[in-house]
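Objective 1b of the project was to move from sequence-level analysis to a structural picture of ligand recognition. The entry below was assembled by the postdoctoral researcher (A.K.) and checked by the PI before modelling. It contains the amino acid sequence of the target and the SMILES of the bound compound, pyridoxal-5'-phosphate.
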Amino acid sequence: MNTISPRSQMEEISMYSPGKPIEELQRELGITHVIKMASNENPYGASPLAQKAITAEIKDTHYYPEITAPVLKHKLAHRLDVNENQLIFGNGSDEIIGMLTRTYLQENDEVIMASVTFPRYKTNVIIDGGIPIEVPMKQGGLHDLQAMTNAITESTKMIFVCNPNNPTGTIISAHELLEFIKNVPPHILVIVDEAYYEYIRSDDYFATLHYLDEYPNLIALRTFSKIYGLASLRIGYGIMHPSIVSELLKSKDPFNVNRFAQAAALACLDDYEFMRTTQEQNNAGRQYLENEFKRLDLSYFSTHTNFIMVDTNMAAETINDELLKRGIIIRPGHMMGYPTMIRVTIGTTDENQLFISALEEILSI
Ligand SMILES: *Cc1c(COP(=O)(O)O)cnc(C)c1O
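Corresponding predicted holo structure:
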């Protein structure tokens, strides 16, 4: 027993448990054909341009990367029509969540978020001494913005809004989110996590970037891990008021975004074709899954992402175990407060079909 005690809040949290890695399941089952539909990665990989850029970068591996990713920042600022001083890059957008809590939270500051949403908000808040205030969702896996407004107190410092939300896949209407932001006092940061921005297929979506000047407490987070297929390289970014960027630059690890990530992200911004085909195939996959769920009489949340949450009417744990035996990795909902639902990443045509036939088999056991 080690008697060196960590900070007391470490007792409240546990290690992040990701979807099982493919390699781990292969070792456990002794099988080679495993499909992963658990972590919302791009099933079509990454742009070939990104792969070329990574290869070209190998010769400079011994040099530290530039600390603010200036070349990428220049290109992305132009692309998003924002100023370069509004952008900051992280070792995944996960790291930017941590930079925000580390930089802005004082002991016992309250941070409002939905329940259920992306787990890293809560973990980072606790580590940095804040108090997570979790507001239950409405029917259909939707943010309850009225209840979140009501949860604001003197101690509120930050609000996380995951839009589209992970794990439910749902979005908030543009009008509703704008009304919410208008009501938040200007000393409270509103962080809109848009990790699945490129998958949204609705015009009724809040254009966060258009409101950054009017609401300097507003922050958008995006990532190269999802549609761009660079999850293993770890690169995401935040768009916010330059004064917030300046504070985060003081607290961030200097060499947080490695050379391969910077080069690959820069290159893949040019591959419109890869983005377009991924969107199209994801849409087709979503329609296929929705039709199959209807045929099987299963209800699901309306999704604007590359994953979908479906109610199996069975214990999610059982479904998860049975799918694992068949070499399919998904995310069971019982740990997220949805005991009979599972979250499935929309895969390739083959993967979706294998998943549906396995699910149908399991449901009829
Ligand atoms: C995947 C995901 C992220 C983290 O992405 P990284 O850039 O890989 O750290 C952040 N927010 C949500 C909601 C996600 O699903």
